[in-house]
Design goal:
With about 190 residues, this protein is mainly alpha-helical. The protein has helices at about 20-45, 50-60, 65-75, 80-90, 110-120, 125-135, 140-155, 175, 180-185, and strands at about 65, 95-100, 105-110. β2 and β3 (about 105-110) form a beta hairpin.
Length: about 190
Amino acid sequence: MSMDSRSPVDPEPQVPQQSYELRILQALRRIIRAVDIHSYKLASQYNITGPQLACLLAVQEQGPLTSAKLAKKVYLSPSTLVGIVDRLEEKGLVRRNRDSRDRRLVYITITSVGEQLVAAAPSLLQDTLANALVELPELEQVSITKALEKLVDLMEARHIGAAPVLETGSLNPEKSSGRPVKDVLK
């Protein structure tokens, strides 16, 4: 067979049907890769991470929110959220405003640049998954949930904290795109 007739990407070797451990590992790897690819796309094309986009979407949908309410809405710890909001504010995507009656309250609001980014960015990967899961029969949803929770236990990973936000390790979107958010939207 000549080199010209081969496809540019070699196909994956077939995992035998009875090799459940290999099929599970392959499925986990595909999930991890899907999250990696989505995270990279957000970072390189939109200069934003999944958790940052989740916060932007929540503020857009709910209107101005305090940090505590936003943290609950996106299932992140308040300390994690502070850093995310700091970065969103640095990018000009949100603004912090003190309440005029109670100066202790600070509301996070989306800016026009943030609105533009939300309109241009793809949906969150977890939203796509959640929408697909809701369409499954309840028994199948329970089965998937139990199987994944069992995998977590088998991997001895129950103690690892994780918000229901699909995102891989730390990304530096400024370095990936080399452009500020305002330039990405142009």
